[in-house]
């Protein structure tokens, strides 16, 4: 599996210890114990709906304090994202706290959508950000999971490589940011629980 530096060399933005392990543990435990709801996707009619054949994940309803803390960390990195992607960004969406248990996944998708009926907030998205709170590992433990690779497509423009997926090894504390149009998926979780936070800059 390629290392984080490989994704940097292909133009993605990676910070390895964006969150320290103490903060990852704290938010992961809060996310595990919070009320969970099935996550939705944008349906063809431009409305959000739960379609478990496409995105089988739970949202965790963490505290306002945790949302604000993560939000301020994301806003603090905005100037670096603007410089990296050569874009002007206004703000980021309220972060979503995601919990994946065995068998959960998210099929290949892009985070932006330009169809006429898409909500303006989705049309405005420019950069996606994912923060890992747990690590992919062969070890068993609360902070580890197996499977669940975040896999990116079309990173190499050559037509021969268009359909090739590059999988990132999830590591607690790592932030990866990428242009919203890039296709990506979360492969099914084989064991353990996978925790991430996602948000979108616009
Ligand atoms: O959990 C992840 O690694 C990414 C999730 C994702 O792609 C999304 O929610 O749009
Ligand atoms: Fe996504």
TrEMBL record:
Superkingdom of source:
Bacteria
Is Oxidoreductase tagged as a keyword?
yes
InterPro entries associated with the record: Oxoglu/Fe-dep_dioxygenase_dom, Pro_4_hyd_alph, Pro_4_hyd_alph_FE2OG_OXY
Keyword Oxidoreductase among UniProt keywords? yes
Protein name, UniProt field: 2OG-Fe(II) oxygenase
Cite the Fe2OG dioxygenase domain residue spans from the record. 91-202
Alphabetical UniProt keywords: Dioxygenase, Iron, Metal-binding, Oxidoreductase, Vitamin C
- PROSITE patterns noted in UniProt: FE2OG_OXY
Cofactor (UniProt): L-ascorbate
| A Pfam family that the UniProt record links to this protein | 2OG-FeII_Oxy_3
């Amino acid at each position: 599996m390629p290392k984080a530096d490989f994704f940097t060399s292909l133009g993605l933005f990676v910070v390895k210890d964006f969150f320290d392990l103490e903060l990852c543990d704290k938010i992961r435990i809060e996310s595990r114990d919070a009320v969970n709801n099935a996550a939705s996707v944008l349906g063809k009619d431009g409305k959000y709906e739960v379609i478990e054949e496409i995105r089988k994940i739970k949202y965790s309803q963490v505290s306002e304090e945790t949302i604000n803390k993560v939000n301020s960390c994301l806003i603090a990195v905005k100037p670096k994202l603007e410089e990296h992607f050569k874009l002007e960004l206004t703000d980021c969406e309220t972060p979503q706290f995601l919990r994946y248990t065995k068998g959960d996944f998210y099929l290949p998708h892009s985070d932006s959508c330009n169809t006429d009926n898409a909500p303006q907030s989705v049309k405005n998205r420019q950069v996606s950000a994912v923060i890992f709170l747990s690590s992919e590992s062969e070890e068993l433990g609360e902070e580890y999971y197996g499977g669940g690779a975040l896999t990116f497509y079309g990173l190499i423009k050559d037509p021969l490589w268009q359909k090739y997926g590059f999988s990132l090894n999830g590591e607690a504390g790592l932030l990866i940011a990428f242009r919203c149009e890039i296709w990506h998926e979360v492969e099914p979780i084989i064991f353990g629980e996978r925790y991430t936070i996602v948000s979108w800059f616009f």
